[in-house]
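Reopening this one. Same input as before:
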Amino acid sequence: MPARPRDSAATRAALLAAARELFASGGYDGTTVRAIAERAGVNQALLFRHFGSKDGLFTEAVTGQALEVLHDGPATDLVPRTVRAIMTGDDVQSPLFLSALRSAGNSDAAQTVREELRAAFGGALAELAEGEDRADAELRAELTLAWLLGIALLRTVLRTEAVAAADPEAVVAHVSAAVDTLLGTGTR
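Same output, byte for byte:
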Protein backbone atom coordinates (compact mmCIF):
# COMPACT_ATOMS: atom_id res chain seq x y z
CA MET A 1 0.00 0.00 0.00
CA PRO A 2 1.62 3.29 -1.05
CA ALA A 3 1.98 5.92 1.64
CA ARG A 4 -0.46 8.83 1.31
CA PRO A 5 0.35 12.34 2.42
CA ARG A 6 -1.35 13.41 5.64
CA ASP A 7 -4.39 15.16 4.26
CA SER A 8 -7.55 14.58 6.24
CA ALA A 9 -9.90 15.73 3.47
CA ALA A 10 -8.16 13.57 0.86
CA THR A 11 -8.23 10.55 3.18
CA ARG A 12 -11.92 11.05 3.87
CA ALA A 13 -12.67 11.41 0.14
CA ALA A 14 -10.62 8.30 -0.69
CA LEU A 15 -12.48 6.28 1.95
CA LEU A 16 -15.86 7.46 0.65
CA ALA A 17 -14.94 6.66 -2.96
CA ALA A 18 -13.65 3.21 -2.03
CA ALA A 19 -16.69 2.51 0.13
CA ARG A 20 -19.15 3.54 -2.59
CA GLU A 21 -17.47 1.26 -5.09
CA LEU A 22 -17.17 -1.74 -2.76
CA PHE A 23 -20.63 -1.40 -1.19
CA ALA A 24 -22.11 -1.14 -4.70
CA SER A 25 -20.40 -4.32 -5.85
CA GLY A 26 -20.56 -6.41 -2.68
CA GLY A 27 -23.29 -4.90 -0.55
CA TYR A 28 -22.89 -4.13 3.13
CA ASP A 29 -22.19 -7.67 4.33
CA GLY A 30 -19.84 -8.49 1.46
CA THR A 31 -17.61 -5.48 2.12
CA THR A 32 -14.99 -5.44 4.86
CA VAL A 33 -13.37 -2.50 6.60
CA ARG A 34 -10.01 -3.91 5.56
CA ALA A 35 -11.00 -3.97 1.87
CA ILE A 36 -12.23 -0.37 2.00
CA ALA A 37 -9.02 0.82 3.67
CA GLU A 38 -6.86 -1.10 1.19
CA ARG A 39 -8.78 0.31 -1.78
CA ALA A 40 -8.43 3.82 -0.33
CA GLY A 41 -4.71 3.26 0.33
CA VAL A 42 -4.96 4.05 4.04
CA ASN A 43 -4.76 2.30 7.38
CA GLN A 44 -8.15 0.98 8.50
CA ALA A 45 -7.82 2.90 11.78
CA LEU A 46 -8.40 6.07 9.72
CA LEU A 47 -11.79 4.74 8.65
CA PHE A 48 -12.83 4.59 12.29
CA ARG A 49 -11.32 8.02 13.00
CA HIS A 50 -13.31 9.63 10.19
CA PHE A 51 -16.59 7.68 10.34
CA GLY A 52 -16.71 5.93 13.71
CA SER A 53 -17.70 2.57 12.28
CA LYS A 54 -18.48 0.64 9.14
CA ASP A 55 -22.14 1.58 9.69
CA GLY A 56 -21.22 5.27 9.84
CA LEU A 57 -19.21 5.02 6.63
CA PHE A 58 -21.99 3.09 4.87
CA THR A 59 -24.58 5.65 5.89
CA GLU A 60 -22.52 8.62 4.74
CA ALA A 61 -21.31 6.99 1.53
CA VAL A 62 -24.73 5.92 0.34
CA THR A 63 -26.92 8.76 1.60
CA GLY A 64 -24.34 11.38 0.69
CA GLN A 65 -24.24 10.32 -2.95
CA ALA A 66 -28.03 10.17 -3.22
CA LEU A 67 -28.63 13.44 -1.40
CA GLU A 68 -26.16 15.18 -3.73
CA VAL A 69 -28.40 14.14 -6.61
CA LEU A 70 -31.51 15.19 -4.71
CA HIS A 71 -30.19 18.67 -3.96
CA ASP A 72 -28.16 19.29 -7.12
CA GLY A 73 -30.76 21.35 -8.92
CA PRO A 74 -34.36 22.47 -8.93
CA ALA A 75 -37.04 20.13 -7.64
CA THR A 76 -38.74 20.14 -11.03
CA ASP A 77 -35.64 18.46 -12.53
CA LEU A 78 -35.43 15.78 -9.83
CA VAL A 79 -36.76 12.91 -11.94
CA PRO A 80 -34.52 13.46 -14.98
CA ARG A 81 -31.53 14.10 -12.70
CA THR A 82 -32.19 10.91 -10.75
CA VAL A 83 -32.68 8.79 -13.87
CA ARG A 84 -29.41 10.12 -15.30
CA ALA A 85 -27.61 9.22 -12.07
CA ILE A 86 -29.07 5.71 -12.18
CA MET A 87 -28.25 5.23 -15.86
CA THR A 88 -24.70 6.53 -15.68
CA GLY A 89 -21.76 5.50 -13.62
CA ASP A 90 -19.15 2.84 -13.88
CA ASP A 91 -17.01 0.84 -11.49
CA VAL A 92 -15.62 4.01 -9.94
CA GLN A 93 -18.81 6.06 -9.68
CA SER A 94 -21.45 3.50 -8.85
CA PRO A 95 -24.98 4.12 -10.05
CA LEU A 96 -27.38 5.73 -7.65
CA PHE A 97 -29.17 3.42 -5.16
CA LEU A 98 -27.04 0.38 -6.05
CA SER A 99 -25.45 0.06 -2.60
CA ALA A 100 -28.85 0.29 -0.91
CA LEU A 101 -30.28 -2.31 -3.30
CA ARG A 102 -27.38 -4.72 -2.81
CA SER A 103 -27.66 -4.36 0.95
CA ALA A 104 -31.40 -5.00 1.21
CA GLY A 105 -32.20 -6.88 4.39
CA ASN A 106 -28.70 -6.51 5.81
CA SER A 107 -27.74 -4.54 8.93
CA ASP A 108 -29.36 -1.75 10.83
CA ALA A 109 -27.24 0.74 8.88
CA ALA A 110 -28.69 -0.45 5.59
CA GLN A 111 -32.21 -0.18 6.99
CA THR A 112 -31.47 3.36 8.20
CA VAL A 113 -30.10 4.33 4.79
CA ARG A 114 -33.11 2.90 2.98
CA GLU A 115 -35.50 4.76 5.28
CA GLU A 116 -33.58 8.05 4.96
CA LEU A 117 -33.54 7.81 1.19
CA ARG A 118 -37.20 6.82 1.02
CA ALA A 119 -38.15 9.77 3.20
CA ALA A 120 -35.95 12.26 1.35
CA PHE A 121 -36.83 11.21 -2.20
CA GLY A 122 -40.42 10.28 -1.38
CA GLY A 123 -40.95 13.62 0.34
CA ALA A 124 -39.44 15.57 -2.54
CA LEU A 125 -41.52 13.69 -5.09
CA ALA A 126 -44.69 14.10 -3.00
CA GLU A 127 -44.08 17.86 -2.94
CA LEU A 128 -44.08 17.80 -6.75
CA ALA A 129 -47.38 15.91 -6.94
CA GLU A 130 -50.41 18.00 -7.71
CA GLY A 131 -53.58 17.76 -5.67
CA GLU A 132 -54.82 18.38 -2.16
CA ASP A 133 -54.85 14.77 -0.98
CA ARG A 134 -51.50 14.31 0.85
CA ALA A 135 -51.93 10.54 1.23
CA ASP A 136 -52.50 10.19 -2.51
CA ALA A 137 -49.48 12.41 -3.27
CA GLU A 138 -47.32 10.24 -1.00
CA LEU A 139 -48.60 7.09 -2.73
CA ARG A 140 -47.83 8.49 -6.18
CA ALA A 141 -44.39 9.60 -4.95
CA GLU A 142 -43.59 6.14 -3.59
CA LEU A 143 -44.79 4.52 -6.81
CA THR A 144 -42.40 6.80 -8.67
CA LEU A 145 -39.58 5.90 -6.28
CA ALA A 146 -40.35 2.19 -6.72
CA TRP A 147 -40.03 2.61 -10.47
CA LEU A 148 -36.70 4.42 -10.10
CA LEU A 149 -35.39 1.66 -7.83
CA GLY A 150 -36.63 -0.92 -10.30
CA ILE A 151 -34.72 0.78 -13.10
CA ALA A 152 -31.57 0.74 -10.95
CA LEU A 153 -32.11 -2.94 -10.21
CA LEU A 154 -32.66 -3.86 -13.87
CA ARG A 155 -29.66 -1.85 -15.05
CA THR A 156 -27.07 -2.85 -12.48
CA VAL A 157 -28.04 -6.06 -10.71
CA LEU A 158 -30.14 -8.03 -13.19
CA ARG A 159 -28.48 -6.30 -16.17
CA THR A 160 -31.43 -6.74 -18.47
CA GLU A 161 -30.36 -6.09 -22.04
CA ALA A 162 -32.90 -3.40 -22.88
CA VAL A 163 -32.31 -1.25 -19.79
CA ALA A 164 -28.56 -1.87 -19.41
CA ALA A 165 -27.89 -0.97 -23.05
CA ALA A 166 -30.41 1.87 -23.33
CA ASP A 167 -29.42 5.40 -24.18
CA PRO A 168 -29.73 7.25 -20.84
CA GLU A 169 -31.49 10.21 -22.48
CA ALA A 170 -34.11 7.90 -24.01
CA VAL A 171 -34.81 6.46 -20.57
CA VAL A 172 -34.96 9.98 -19.10
CA ALA A 173 -37.52 10.99 -21.74
CA HIS A 174 -39.75 7.92 -21.24
CA VAL A 175 -39.64 7.99 -17.45
CA SER A 176 -40.14 11.76 -17.26
CA ALA A 177 -43.22 11.59 -19.48
CA ALA A 178 -44.74 8.81 -17.39
CA VAL A 179 -43.90 10.52 -14.09
CA ASP A 180 -45.42 13.76 -15.37
CA THR A 181 -48.66 11.83 -15.79
CA LEU A 182 -48.39 10.01 -12.47
CA LEU A 183 -47.57 13.07 -10.40
CA GLY A 184 -49.60 15.48 -12.52
CA THR A 185 -46.61 17.79 -12.96
CA GLY A 186 -44.29 19.21 -15.54
CA THR A 187 -41.13 17.50 -14.24
CA ARG A 188 -39.48 17.31 -17.66
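So the earlier flakiness isn't reproducible anymore. For the record, The chain is about 70% helix and 0% strand.
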